[in-house]
Amino acid sequence: MSENPAQNPRPAQLDDRSPWVVDTRELGRRAGLSRELRRTAPVPAALGVPGVLEIREGEPVELDLMLESVVEGVLVTGTATAVAAGECSRCLDPVTEHIEVDLTELFAYPGSATEETTDEDEIPRLIDDRIDLEPTVRDAVVLALPLAPLCREDCPGLCIECGVKWADLEPGHGHEKIDPRWAALVERFDENAGEKPAHGSGEQA
Q: Which of 3, 33, 37, 103 has the least C-beta neighbours within 10 A?
């Protein structure tokens, strides 16, 4: 019986020209062999939330990694660093964040026990002795991005009444607050105060 291609998909071939793709053939499959890897790779698509904080498409990611051949595959450890840009969640000023993440990822050999007992979304695979670092780095970086970036830890934010940054306002800045139950009466009083009284022309008794 022929195999169903949908159940046994052939792994896609990785592009050696991509800076995210690493050839591991020099490690072989001899456990204990290792090599360092340092390179810069551009982000293929923006990471993060636009208008909040993101690493824009094409921004460089610095990789400082160790590749080690182990029994079940190639273990990748090290760091990835990048710069994210966005705006302060309190005062809306532009901010930049230096993002550094620690990486530890096993890429399983085809036919290994790990490959046979795990799903591909759990443990990535080697394809033709090559590994694609981009998904691993992308996932780690996205998780490391702060959800509410700040220009500084003690940023006072904006005045909720006038929308001006508290840092730019004079000490003691405030706004007079009127009880909403009296607001309509105050508004009517202001309108009447601006009107000139009418003079009658009737005869006096």
A: 3
Largest CA distance in the chain: 122
Share of the chain above pLDDT 70, in %: 71
Task: Write the DSSP string, 71-100.
Answer: TTEEEEEEEEEEEEEEE-TTT--EEEEEEE
Please name the residues in contact with 52: beta carbons below 8 A apart, sequence gap of 6 or more.
86, 87, 89, 147, 149
Question: Among 94, 37, 86, 36, which Cα is nearest to 59's?
Answer: 86
Beta bridge partners of 36: 66
Confidence of residue 178 (pLDDT cuts 50, 70, 90): low
What is the C-alpha separation between 50 and 44, in angstroms, rounded? Answer: 15
Contact 157, 166 (CB under 8 A): yes
DSSP SS3 for 52: coil
Comparing CA positions, the residue from 83, 81, 88 lying closest to residue 51 is 88
Length of the chain: 205
CA dist 17 and 62 (Å) reads 17
pLDDT of residue 3: 41
Do residues 62 and 80 make contact, with C-beta atoms less than 8 angstroms apart? yes
Tokens 């991509």: give the residue: 18
DSSP label of 169: S
Distance CA 100, CA 79 (A): 7
